Amino acid sequence: MRRTTTLRTALSTALLLATAALGFTPASAATATGSAAPAASAVSARSSDSPAPAASRLSPGLLTALGRDLGLTEAAAADRLRAESAARAVEAPARRAAGAAYGGSWFDAGSGRLTVALTDRARRAAVEAAGADTVLVRRTARALDAAKARIDRLDAPAGVASWHVDPEANAVAVNVVDDRRGDPAVRAFVERARQAGPVAVRTTGEAPRTFAAGTVGGDPYYTGNVRCSIGFSVHGGFVTAGHCGSRGAAVYGWDRSYVGTFQGSSFPGDDYAWVSVGSGWWTVPVVLGWGTVPDQLVRGSAEAPIGSSVCRSGSTTRWHCGTVLARNETVNYSQGAVHQMTKTSVCAEPGDSGGSFISGDQAQGVTSGGWGNCSGGGQTWHQPVNEILNRYGLRLHTA
């Protein structure tokens, strides 16, 4: 790429020197115009359990952003990040201890611990010994997943926004658009869903939409007349949203210089893609903080439990935070349903599509779509990054 090469070489050297000691630290810088580092590249997942970050590794800017969006003090934000990191490490062993009685899990912000739902009281001691709290429920996660799979086979009308397994409710949550809940087609879908399994009907403010945009300024990438945002660097390119471009489409950077091409893309059904990079562009394990927070280093891709905090970086609205509301949700866009999505309370707007979702220093996914905006609030879904890496055999670029 052809952008302040000398400056960026120095910044890359500084990044390499800093990564041994720092976790959430600046690793790239914006130019005088506010534009940020070039395209990332695509590689495969390192999904090992992550240790709780030390206080010295928590960026003050990240704590400020979490405090702003979640209503926390800086000290409370730091405590929450450490608790969430510990919960991520507990989730896998707790699930193994639960065995066939596993009914799902989530991070409880009140207790600061992971909660695991169980259908068998006899498994409580083993799960609690692994470090999680427990609650007894009627249905296993396997039974709920099977019910959701049956609902996935139904044709959903436009007034149905999405559906996912809710482990706290021990049911499949079906989200309908508030002013469409009385529509005959919506009511018929809900009835068919109830025949497929236990359903909890909820309302949402708007129908979901994708967040691609026409050509506008900022620090994006472009394909045709569409502007989207880079997700995460992988070795050889970057991952992003599938609705941003089809396989073989040329990709251009913020300065309209050629970056590479879409090597794989899927939408609807999925919403993921990867772009190979060349022509002087290179990849770094960084998520842009846009001056709101320092640029964030990416150290892995351990999936955050439901209830955890998560932040998003995109080329339109830049840096915003919220919490994970649901995993494995099916989202009913106008173009068709997209499966295995993660729902968050983070806002987004057109042009943010494809951008990074990160929890602490762990990559989570690429922005797909949602409803609302960053003035009045809303919800946004991301396609989990580990699914993308596994699908294309990529390796995540980590610090």
TrEMBL record:
Residues 1-29 form the signal peptide. One of its GO terms (molecular function) is serine-type endopeptidase activity. Keywords: Disulfide bond, Hydrolase, Protease, Serine protease, Signal, Zymogen. Residues 217-388 form the Peptidase S1 domain. Disulfide bonds join 228-244, 311-321, 347-374. The keyword Signal applies. Pfam families: Pro_Al_protease, Trypsin. Its EC number is 3.4.21.12. InterPro entries: Pept_S1_alpha_lytic, Pept_S1A_streptogrisin, Peptidase_S1_PA, Peptidase_S1_PA_chymotrypsin, Streptogrisin_prodomain, Trypsin_dom. CDD domains: alphaLP-like. This is Alpha-lytic protease. It comes from Streptomyces fradiae ATCC 10745 = DSM 40063.
